[in-house]
Structures are given as structure tokens and as C-alpha cells.
Design brief:
Layout: E1 2-4, E2 11-13, H1 16-24, E3 27-29, E4 32-34, H2 43-51, E5 60-63, E6 70-73, E7 85-86, H3 88-91, H4 111-121, E8 124-125, E9 129-130, E10 139-142, E11 148-154, E12 160-166, E13 172-178, E14 187-190, E15 196-202, E16 208-214, E17 217-220, E18 223-226, E19 229-232, E20 235-236, H5 239-246, H6 253-269, E21 271-273, E22 277-278, E23 285-289, E24 292-295, E25 297-301, E26 304-313, E27 316-325, E28 329-356, E29 359-362, E30 365-368, E31 377-380, E32 383-384, H7 387-403, E33 407-408, E34 414-415, H8 441-445, H9 450-455, E35 472-475, E36 493-496, E37 503-504, H10 508-516, H11 526-534, E38 543-546, E39 553-556, E40 565-567, H12 569-576
Parallel strand pairs: 7-8, 9-10, 10-11, 11-12, 12-13, 13-14, 14-15, 15-16, 16-18, 17-19, 21-40, 22-23, 23-25, 24-26, 25-26, 26-27, 27-28, 28-29, 28-30, 30-31, 35-36
Antiparallel strand pairs: 1-2, 3-4, 5-6, 19-20, 31-32, 33-34, 36-37, 38-39
């Protein structure tokens, strides 16, 4: 049966597989067994609501609410909703205990109204990091060293600007880059060395302004090649002729722009995989690897039996989840986990199980409506109960949620932006997020205008750049063409972006990298470069598409009617070989 989504007003259906999953997922409270409720919103709006609670890109200077010291945080000094923020080391210290914020459940108020009060009071981590060294300006990072303005990355060193670096060294302005070194302006590359402006490629060395290469070396303005060397515009050359052709492009911004214009034409006429799915069985989506029975999943690896998971590693039996890492299992409508089990309607749950409607909880189990707890069990709204008390009270709260809307305003009037009659089964409301929609990861993959976002109940952050402290301000167009002609004093200048007009400064390590690699200094603000790379990634929406070679039907993120040539996996492999 088709249902109308209360947010976007588009029809959607609840499939048999989703119903079966909800029946499979159980929470047991004594003799009472509870299943998650069928969602009220369409899958796309569920994803928007969920990921609007995650900022993994924008960092701000503010003060710790515990010590007053200056810190870098993902929370603006004036967050969209009240929140208390502690420095990362303070949050993990013994200077405070989240259990002291506990309160009794009030059946005269809605659950979300009470949870929001708790959520506002319990401190949050300024940034989400673990085991880093000299990586103050990063978030969502682990075990990194000397990195700057990267996010969602692990085991990296000397990397700057971008998203999802994994085991990389000395890479700049890249996104979705794995096991690579000395790369610049690359997107979706694996095991690559000293490449620039390379995308959708694997096992390549010294390749530039190219896409869809496999095990290639010294290729320039090439596409859809495998095991080739010294190719220029897809033509085989001798080593000497190749060096002669590319010599003019070294260190010149003007020649770089010419190559980029040609690369754009190359991308338009190249063949593209219908879906980037490798070593997987019975899977649909994009960027899946080593997985089985995963459907409508994106950026997922080593996973099985999942549906609508966006960004997952070693994920099993999860439905409508995002940013799930290291063996999460049986999770529903949850964002940001490490080893979570049997968890629903939650945000940032690490090494925990049997968790409902909770946020930032670590090494715990059997929690309902809790924030910031560590090593706890049988807690509701951060109040400790006995096992028997917990198992008696939670079912009563769930029944109460089924009868009450999202939130009650100060005058007691019902406030329910999704239009649902009860709050049980709903994710944390979008207006609970401390981030503007345009600050969140939701906007990165599902961009909305300010008018569209606010009409759907999301916040919007009005931004204004501060002029960085500098000796002088120079327009990017006035920089010398070649980096070798740029003086050391450029580190003291504010450069205004040639696209957005926003000011930015170069870091010393960054300038050294450009000089060592004979690369021109970027004329665009780091955010402009970031956005340009992300436009290489299609929206997380699947369409039935016809292979342009064999005519076979396949699922793809390239919508029917787009101009690109799309091949099924068999035809693509044959063409590339």
C-alpha cells in the first residue's frame, strides 16, 4: 500500500523485507516484547533527518563550557539549539559524570520534550576523534598524525583538505582515497602514488587528469585504460615523447586549467560503470565492495544483509542506518556506531547493545533515552534503575509515546513537523539538531535551498567569513602562474578565491607540498575545491538504466536520460580490458 510522506509529500511503500526486518528486531522487557514501528517518512526523508544530526566538515573556534579554554569544535559558538560542549579530553575525563543529569520520566510531557532538555544539558564532545597526534582541526578521525581539515579518516599522516582518507600519506585536496601517497585533487582512488586530478581509479602511479584507470603508470588525459604506461590522450607514446608532451603542464596554473577543461570533455564522452560494485553478490547501490545481499546501500564494504545503509564497514543486518563501523549488527534508524548491537533510533553509540533513543553512549547496554553515559545499564533519561524497574517502565513509556506527538510547546500545543500521530518509531526530530542543514552531511549528499530546508523543519546557518589575519590581501588571479615564482611571504597573505571571493590562507606544509610536487597553488577556497570533488559523486538514488552496449537492464545512480554512456559490469570490464 502506498503511503504519503508527511515531509516531501511523495508516495512510498513499506516493503515485505522491511516488515520482516522489523519483526526480526526485538527488544525484550521482562515478558513484554517490542518491535520498532513502521516508519512514517519516505526513505529519502528518513536519510535527510538522520544525517542532519551529523556535522563532519565545518569547524569553529569557541570556548569549552567546562574550563573556558579556547577549543576547536563542530558546534558553532551559537548553535541552532542549546548544547553544552566540552573539549575532547575533558569529555573523556573524570571531571564530570553524565548520570548526575538524570531525571524521572514525566508522563505529563512528551518523550521528545524531555529528551531535548536532557540532550541540551549533557555535555557533548567538541570533536569526534580518537588516538590522533597534532590533528586539532579534524573531526571523525582516528589514529592520524599531522593532518589538517580532513574528516571521516583513519590511519593517515601529513594529509590536508578532504573527506574519507584511509591509510594515506601526504595527500592534499582528495576525497574517498585509500592506501595512497603523494596525491592531489583525487577522488575515489585506491592504492595510488603521486597522482593528481585522478578519479575512479586503482593501483596507479604518476597519472594525471584522468579517470577510470586500472594498474596504469604515467598516463595523462586518459580514460578507461588497464595496465597501460606512457599514454597521452589514450594514445601510446614512447617514454621520451610522453615526457615531452606533459612538460608544459608542470607547475603552471594556466596549463592546469587547460587540462581540466579537456578532462571535463573527456568525462562527458567516457564510458561509466552503471554501479561501482566489486567482489559482491546480490547487491545494489554504489561503491560496494566485498559484500553480500546489500540493497540500496552506498559506500559500504565487507557487509551483508543490509538495506539502505550509507557508509558502513563490516555491517550486518542493518536497515536505514548511516556511518556504521566495525561490526554493527541488528540496527535500525541509527547514525554513527562502532560495534553496536540491537540499537534503534540512536546517535553515536559505541560498543553497546540494546539501546533505544540514546546519544553519545559508550560501553553500555539496556538504555532508553540517555545521553553521554559510559559503562551503564538499565538507565532511562540518565537515571539508574534496577533491572525489574527498567523492564516495567520502558514499555509504559513506549505506550505513552505512541499516544503523544513529537513535542509539546510551552503552551502545551502539539508540535509535530512530520505529521505523525505519535512519536514512537520516529527518529530524533530535525529541529533537535544543533546544526543548520547546510552545516550537516545531509546537505552534502541531498542539497536543499534555504527555503526548501526550512519548509521541512530544518535549521539553516547563515554564514559569514572572517578576514584572516594577514599582512595583505591578494586576489587569487594575481598570484604568479608558477609556484616556483611565489615568495615565501605568501604564507602571510590572505588570498581571495577566484570563484567565491572567500579569503583563505596557505599552510606552510601545504606550500612545501606544492613546491616539492611542482604543482600550482590552488586559486579556489578549500571549500570550493571540496564541493567540486563531491560533484563527481552521483546522488544516492538508484534508477533502472539500460546498458548502452548490450541493452541489459541494470540499476545505476545515473538516471535514465543522462548523456553519459553507461555500461553494465560485464560490458565495462570487456571495454576497459
Amino acid at each position: 500500500m502506498s503511503l504519503p510522506c508527511p515531509l516531501c509529500h511523495q508516495p512510498f511503500t513499506i516493503g515485505k523485507d522491511e516488515t520482516a526486518f522489523l519483526e526480526k528486531m526485538t527488544f525484550t522487557f521482562g515478558k513484554t516484547v517490542v518491535h520498532p514501528a513502521e516508519p512514517k517518512e519516505c526513505p529519502a526523508c528518513r536519510l535527510k533527518i538522520r544525517t542532519a544530526h551529523r556535522n563532519e566538515r565545518f569547524l569553529y573556534r569557541r570556548k569549552s563550557d567546562l574550563s573556558g579554554k579556547g577549543i576547536v569544535a563542530i558546534f558553532h559558538p551559537e548553535p541552532m539549539r542549546p548544547c553544552t560542549v566540552y573539549a575532547h579530553d575533558e569529555w573523556h575525563s573524570d571531571k564530570w559524570d553524565a548520570i548526575t543529569y538524570g531525571r524521572a520520566y514525566d508522563f505529563g510531557r512528551s518523550f521528545f520534550d524531555q529528551f531535548f532538555d536532557l540532550q541540551s544539558a549533557v555535555p557533548k564532545m567538541a570533536v569526534v576523534t580518537v588516538g590522533n597526534e597534532n590533528c586539532e582541526f579534524t573531526t571523525g578521525t582516528g589514529y592520524c598524525k599531522n593532518c589538517y581539515l580532513i574528516n571521516s579518516s583513519e590511519y593517515c599522516e601529513d594529509c590536508c583538505y578532504g573527506k574519507l582518507f584511509q591509510k594515506c600519506r601526504s595527500c592534499y585536496d582528495c576525497s574517498y582515497i585509500f592506501d595512497s601517497e603523494l596525491c592531489s585533487q583525487c577522488f575515489s582512488v585506491y592504492n595510488c602514488y603521486q597522482c593528481r586530478f585522478l578519479s575512479f581509479s586503482k593501483n596507479c602511479n604518476d597519472c594525471q587528469f584522468s579517470l577510470s584507470l586500472l594498474s596504469c603508470k604515467n598516463c595523462f588525459l586518459c580514460s578507461n585504460l588497464e595496465r597501460k604506461e606512457y599514454c597521452f590522450r589514450n594514445k601510446q607514446l614512447s617514454k621520451q615523447d610522453y615526457a615531452r608532451e606533459i612538460a608544459a603542464y608542470t607547475d603552471s596554473y594556466e596549463k592546469q586549467q587547460e587540462a581540466l577543461a579537456e578532462l571535463e570533455l573527456l568525462q562527458a564522452k567516457s564510458i561509466h560503470r552503471a554501479a561501482n560494485i566489486l567482489n559482491s553478490e546480490d547487491c545494489t547501490g554504489d561503491y560496494l565492495e566485498n559484500s553480500k545481499n546489500c540493497h540500496e546501500c552506498f559506500d559500504v564494504s565487507d557487509s551483508q544483509d543490509c538495506t539502505r545503509v550509507t557508509v558502513g564497514v563490516s555491517t550486518k543486518d542493518c536497515f536505514d542506518c548511516s556511518n556504521m563501523y566495525i561490526k554493527p549488527e541488528l540496527c535500525f534508524m541509527t547514525l554513527g556506531t562502532i560495534e553496536a548491537y540491537n540499537t534503534a533510533y540512536s546517535l553515536y553509540v559505541f560498543h553497546s547493545q540494546n539501546i533505544l533513543y540514546s546519544e553519545n553512549c559508550f560501553h553500555s547496554k539496556d538504555l532508553f533515552g540517555c545521553c553521554g553515559l559510559k559503562h551503564k545499564q538499565y538507565c532511562i533519561l540518565n537515571t539508574q534503575y534496577t533491572k525489574q524497574e527498567y523492564e516495567e517502565l520502558v514499555p509504559r513509556i513506549i505506550e505513552h509515546m505512541k499516544k503523544t506527538p513529537y513535542q509539546l510547546s510551552a503552551d502545551g500545543a502539539a508540535m509535530n513537523p512530520s505529521g505523525a500521530s505519535g512519536s514512537w518509531g520516529q527518529y530524533f526530530p530535525q529541529h533537535f539538531s544543533p546544526f543548520g542543514y547546510n552545516e550537516s552531511v545531509a546537505h552534502e549528499y541531498m542539497p536543499l535551498t534555504k527555503e526548501e530546508a526550512t519548509a521541512m523543519g530544518f535549521h539553516w546557518r547563515e554564514t559569514k567569513d572572517e578576514i584572516p589575519e594577514a599582512k595583505k590581501i591578494i586576489a587569487a588571479r594575481d598570484l604568479p602562474d608558477r609556484t616556483s615564482d611565489v615568495p615565501d611571504d605568501v604564507l602571510n597573505w590572505a588570498i581571495t578565491c577566484c570563484v567565491s571571493g572567500r579569503p583563505y590562507k596557505l599552510q606552510k606544509a601545504e606550500l612545501n607540498f606544492y613546491r616539492q610536487q611542482s604543482l600550482p597553488i590552488p586559486r579556489e577556497h578549500p571549500d570550493v575545491r571540496y564541493d567540486h570533488r563531491m560533484r563527481l559523486k552521483n546522488a544516492r538514488t538508484l534508477w533502472q538504466r539500460t546498458c548502452d552496449k548490450c541493452g541489459k537492464k541494470t540499476m545505476s545512480t545515473f538516471a535514465e536520460g543522462r548523456s553519459e554512456r553507461i555500461y553494465c559490469e560485464e560490458c565495462y570490464s570487456e571495454a576497459a580490458g
